[in-house]
Design goal:
Oligomer: single chain
Number of helices: 4
Radius of gyration: 27 Å
Strand content: 25-35%
Largest sheet: 3 strands, antiparallel
Number of domains: 2
Strand order of the largest sheet: 2-1-3
Shape: elongated
Number of strands: 11
Structural class: alpha+beta
Order of helices and strands: EEEEEEEHEEHEEHH
Distance between the termini: 60 Å
Length: 195
């Protein structure tokens, strides 16, 4: 005969279950059956799925009993993590667009897709390090046209990016602060993300 053990988190969620046929328990694991079959079971289910894909647990150990919840309620931490992921995704989408600059004396529209963001980051490094060769051809928003830029014009383009990106970044930081300050799931869910 074998013994079945469960491991709990701080909220009494069952985060791991096993038979001592396959491994030895930690000192904090709880034995729930001292005369069991080889395969671990909870409430008649062999090797049950303990959590959802979002990390919500189906089983709890309450007053010495295993309790199953088909619709587990997310904790504040889980909801906060999900909201932070939404904020980061919305932020990336808000930046994946176009911006304008009059760095060359004419108002030009530049691409600011993820690939272009990398190119602008390299341009900033080249300017700071003094390693750039000028003029630099920068792709415009149509994806076909390149415009030559002097070092001074490149610096002005980067300043235009800062003016474009700054307010979006400030909104992101405000959303993240609101999520961190929330003390209930409802407060987190009430945060509307709009860039």
């Amino acid at each position: 005969m074998y013994k079945w053990y469960i491991r709990l988190d701080a909220n009494n969620n069952i985060i791991y279950g096993f038979s001592d046929a396959f491994e030895q328990p930690l000192s904090t694991d709880i034995c729930i059956n001292e005369s069991a079959d080889r395969q671990f079971e909870l409430l008649g289910v062999v090797n049950p799925q303990l959590s959802t894909m979002n990390g919500l647990y189906f089983y709890q150990y309450i007053s010495g009993n295993v309790v199953y919840n088909a619709n587990p309620v997310p904790t504040l931490a889980v909801v906060q993590q999900a909201k932070i992921a939404q904020i980061n995704s919305a932020y990336a989408s808000a930046l994946d667009t176009k911006f304008t600059s009059n760095a060359t004396g004419a108002i030009l529209t530049y691409d600011y897709s993820e690939a272009s963001q990398m190119s602008f980051a390299k341009l900033a490094i080249d300017i700071i390090s003094g390693m750039g060769t000028y003029p630099v051809d920068i792709m415009l928003s149509d994806g076909l046209t390149y415009a030559p830029h002097t070092q001074a014009q490149c610096q002005l383009v980067l300043e235009s990016i800062g003016a474009f990106e700054g307010p979006i970044r400030a909104k992101k930081e405000a959303f993240l602060k609101a999520v961190a300050a929330a003390t209930t799931v409802d407060q987190v869910n009430a945060i509307t993300i709009q860039f």
